Amino acid sequence: MATPLTPANLITALRAEGVDVVEVGSWRTHNRGTRGTGWGPVNGVMIHHTVTSGTDASVRICRDGYAGLPGPLCHAVADKEGRMHLVGHGRANHAGNGDPDVLAAVIREEKTLPAPRASSQDGNSRFYGIEAINLGDGKDPWPAAQLEAIARYTAAICRAHGWNQYSVLAHAEWQLGKIDPRGPGKNASAMMKDFRARVGTLLDGKPGAGAASLAAPASDAAVPPARESADRPADADT
Fold first, then answer.
1. Contact assessment for residue 52 and residue 135, using Cβ atoms and an 8 Å cutoff
2. How many CB atoms within 10 Å of residue 169?
C-alpha cells in the first residue's frame, strides 16, 4: 500500500527505466477526481487491451472515453512501436469493481491470485492502469517492442514503490467476465506468466539496463477523433 507517485516522480522513474514516453496534453491533471473512493492508496499495476486498432484513435479514446464511460480510461497507452502515451494521472476508469480477496493477495504479492468472484472492491482507486493497443481477438500480435515498453513502465512503478512483479495483475484476474490481456494462443493467465517474469528480470537489474532508447520528446498534439470504442461500462465510476 503506497501513496501514488506525483507526475514529476513518475516521469523521473519512467525515464530512468528507459521508457519511451509521449506526454499527451494535460495528462498530469486529467483524472476522475474524487469520485468513488478517490485515488490511492495504490497497490499495483493492471494490464488491459484496448479492443481497438491504430495509435491515434486508441490514444484519443483512452484519454477522452466515450458515451457511458468518460476518460481517462487508463494512465498510459502502449502502442505497437514501443511508446508509452501518458493520458492521465489520478483516478481513471479502467479497473472497475473487483474482488477484495484479489486485492488482498496483490498486497501480499502472492505468486498465485484467487479467481475473482465478488465485485465489491473499488479498483480505480487502487491500481495504475495500462492499455495496450490490441484487438483482443486472440489473433492480433503483441510486438516485442510493445511488450518491452509495458514491462519497463511497470517495472519503473514497481521499483519506485518497492514492489515486486507480483504487484502486477491482469484485468481478467481482477474482474469477472474480463479476458484481457489476450494474445495469439495465450489467455490472460499465460500472458501474465510471461509478463511477470520479464518485470522480475528488470527489477533484478539496474534501472534502464538494456534499454534501446530513452523518452521521446513530449507532445501535446491534437489526436483525431476515435473510430473505435471499447465495451467496458462495468469499469465506470458510480
1. yes
2. 26
* Joined grid coordinates for residue 63: 484519454
The single-letter code of the amino acid at 8 is: A
Q: Which residue has the cell 483525431?
A: 224
Give the dihedral of Cα atoms 12, 86, 21, 10; nearest 10 deg.
Answer: 10
Q: Where are the alpha helices (DSSP H) in 162-221?
A: 171-174, 188-204
Q: Are 29 and 54 in contact (CB under 8 A)?
A: no
Angle at 95 between CA 136 and CA 152, to 5 degrees: 70
CA atoms within 13 A on the CB side of 192: 24
* Cβ pair 10, 144 in contact under 8 A: no
Sign of torsion over alpha carbons 131, 134, 139, 143: negative
Report how far residue 145's alpha carbon sits from residue 151's, in angstroms, rounded to the nearest whole number: 10
d(CA 224, CA 59): 9
Mean pLDDT by 10-residue block, N- to C-terminus, for the chain (238 residues)? 94 98 98 92 98 98 95 98 98 97 98 97 98 98 98 98 98 97 97 98 94 46 34 54
Q: What is the pLDDT of residue 211?
A: 84
Q: What is the pTM of this model?
A: 0.90
Cell of 171: 484485468
Q: What is the pLDDT of residue 212?
A: 65
Please give the distance of CA 220 from its chain centroid, rounded to a whole number: 21
Q: How many CA atoms lie within 13 A of 180 on its CB side?
A: 24
